[in-house]
Amino acid sequence: MGILLWAVLTTMFLYIIWNISSLARYYLKFTIFIFISLIFATVPIPLMFLKPRDSRNALLPAWALRTSAWILGLKYEIKGKENIIKDSGCVVLINHQSALDLIILAQLWPIMDNCTVISKKEVFYLWPFGLASWLWGTIFIDRLNPEKAQSIVNKTGKTIRHRKARVLMFPEGTRSMKEKLLPFKKGAFHLAVASQCPLQPVIVDQYTFLGKHRFDEGSITITILPGIPTAGMTQDDVPMLTEKAYTVMAKFMEERKVEVSKKTM
């Protein structure tokens, strides 16, 4: 009885501070997000061993992340599904804003077949999450060893081409809540040229619901843009390809900002 009473009192306390304190709501929401992410990424590990390195192993964690979005008061809409590249692998470029971008990956994973991501090798050693990541096909690279990393990029390029895989990447390389894109790092574009497969730009609306110690409810539109071909390009074309992709994505972000501002007026 004492445990039940304690649970009821704790629940009431959390409910009260959730509604009266934006700071408490901020930390509680991120705690829920992290808890759900870790639990549903690791609990299915025994099932993942049935088909190791299969992208479908991430479908249950992706479902859990989409559910966590509903709990956190976030609604997502995906536009431009008709632009999804068919019958080919590709490198998917996504603007990077927050740890919540994991939910963006969870939204894209079921609608883009054979997805994977690239991560620094240190993540693999964060078990059990690192093991789960390996089991759903994450490609780990050593950022401190450029020659080895380039070798993995070349091998990954072949994988993209032969298995028609889709590598989801954040070309800015770091999170930014600014209204404009940060300069792109060239790794994604070297990979696209190595695979001779197109780029698939994806723009996520700015997280206006998120701020310093503020985590409100919000609606987010994810827009899939038409592909950018790379066939026939060489590594010498990477700077031009990087600039082209940046221009396309930055222009669309600006257009979306104007469109959203008109709707809120």
Question: Can you walk through the features of this model?
Answer:
The protein is α/β, with parallel strands linked by helices and 265 residues long. It has a single domain (1-263), classed as 3-Layer(aba) Sandwich (Glycerol-3-phosphate (1)-acyltransferase), CATH 3.40.1130. The chain is built from nine helices and nine strands. Helix 1 crosses helix 2 and helix 7 (146-163) crosses helix 8. The protein is globular.
Q: Quick gist of this model?
A:
The chain is of the alpha/beta class. The protein contains 9 helices and 9 strands. It has a single domain (1-263), classed as Glycerol-3-phosphate (1)-acyltransferase, CATH 3.40.1130.
Write the layout of secondary structure elements.
Blueprint: H1 2-20, H2 22-42, H3 45-48, H4 59-71, E1 74-79, E2 90-94, H5 101-108, E3 115-120, H6 129-135, E4 139-141, H7 146-163, E5 166-169, H8 187-195, E6 199-204, E7 210-211, E8 214-215, E9 218-224, H9 238-264
Parallel strand pairs: 1-9, 2-5, 2-6, 3-4, 3-5
Antiparallel strand pairs: 6-9, 7-8
* Strand adjacency order, main sheet: 1-9-6-2-5-3-4
Rg over CA atoms: 20 Å
Estimated helix fraction: 40-55%
How many β strands by DSSP? 9
Number of domains: 1
Termini gap: 53 Å
CATH architecture: 3-Layer(aba) Sandwich
CATH class: Alpha Beta
Mean pLDDT: 91
Helix run count: 9
CATH topology: Glycerol-3-phosphate (1)-acyltransferase
Structural class: alpha/beta
Q: How much strand?
A: 15-25%
- Main sheet overview: 7 strands, mixed
Give the CA-based shape. globular
User: What pattern of helices and strands is seen along the backbone?
Assistant: HHHHEEHEHEHEHEEEEH
Uncertain runs: none
Pathway: Phospholipid metabolism; CDP-diacylglycerol biosynthesis; CDP-diacylglycerol from sn-glycerol 3-phosphate: step 2/3
GO molecular function: 1-acylglycerol-3-phosphate O-acyltransferase activity
Catalytic activity: a 1-acyl-sn-glycero-3-phosphate + an acyl-CoA = a 1,2-diacyl-sn-glycero-3-phosphate + CoA
Protein name: 1-acyl-sn-glycerol-3-phosphate acyltransferase
